[in-house]
């Protein structure tokens, strides 16, 4: 039975953009599992699977419903042990937890602020109203003001990626010679920005950008199945 992945979308239902949903899409592809993306706008999230999770991503695998990207990855690892591992063992799971927290604390804050208005502008009117209300509560200011300093902060953001850049000088992926869920965690953050905004968050000659390009090529070019925002 095909797995259902509830995928966050805007006006264009063919362009899922949530970094957390992209983690799951990559994880499903890594496991070689067929899935169907269910386009889900912001205002429909609360009704997904009778609201059992309240956020996306959510997957339905037969009778099982699982939410939260990391919990979904663990579920896939445990349920389909005969397929390629997402973690490469218990140590890989622990390392992925660290990578997830690093990404959430280092990568997401800048990207989320930098592309905030791009997200808003690609939503349906009802979703725009929801997005404005929730994000203005989060940032404590009108959403138009949030990305104002992105150019001034870009160099500092790129500098924070130096640990990743340095590691990529000795191996092609965070997972080593091949990508693991740790790669999908970080690559999905950059995919979020790539799909929703033309803002250049990485320099073309940055080793991080080159790694991201390799990630986009994985699984028959899954990441490239959605074109970059123009």
From TrEMBL:
Gene3D superfamilies: 1.20.1050.10, Glutaredoxin. This is Glutathione S-transferase family protein. InterPro entries: Glutathione-S-Trfase_C_sf, Glutathione_S-Trfase_N, GST_UstS-like_C, Thioredoxin-like_sf. It comes from the Bacteria. Coiled coil: none annotated. CDD domains: GST_C_etherase_LigE, GST_N_etherase_LigE. The lineage of its organism: Bacteria, Pseudomonadati, Pseudomonadota, Alphaproteobacteria, Hyphomicrobiales. Residues 8-84 form the GST N-terminal domain. It comes from Neoaquamicrobium sediminum.
């Amino acid at each position: 039975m095909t797995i259902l992945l509830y995928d966050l979308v805007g006006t264009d239902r063919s362009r899922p953009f949530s970094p957390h949903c992209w983690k799951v899409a990559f994880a499903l592809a890594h496991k070689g599992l067929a899935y169907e993306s269910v386009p889900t706008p912001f205002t429909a999230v609360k009704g997904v699977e009778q609201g059992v999770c309240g956020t996306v991503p959510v997957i339905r695998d037969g009778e099982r419903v699982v939410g939260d990207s990391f919990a979904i990855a663990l579920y896939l690892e445990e349920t389909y042990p005969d397929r390629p591992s997402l973690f490469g063992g218990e140590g890989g799971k622990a390392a992925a937890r660290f990578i997830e927290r690093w990404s959430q604390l280092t990568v997401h804050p800048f990207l989320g602020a930098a592309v905030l208005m791009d997200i808003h502008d690609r939503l349906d009117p009802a979703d725009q109203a929801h997005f404005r209300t929730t994000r203005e509560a989060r940032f404590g200011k009108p959403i138009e003001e949030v990305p104002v300093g992105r150019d001034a902060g870009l160099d500092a953001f790129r500098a924070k990626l130096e640990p990743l850049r340095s590691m990529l000088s000795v191996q092609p992926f965070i997972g080593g010679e091949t990508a693991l869920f740790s790669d999908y965690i970080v690559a999905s953050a950059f995919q979020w920005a790539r799909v929703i905004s033309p803002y250049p968050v990485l320099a073309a000659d940055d080793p991080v950008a080159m790694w991201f390009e390799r990630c986009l090529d994985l699984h028959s070019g899954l990441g490239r199945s959605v074109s970059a925002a123009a």
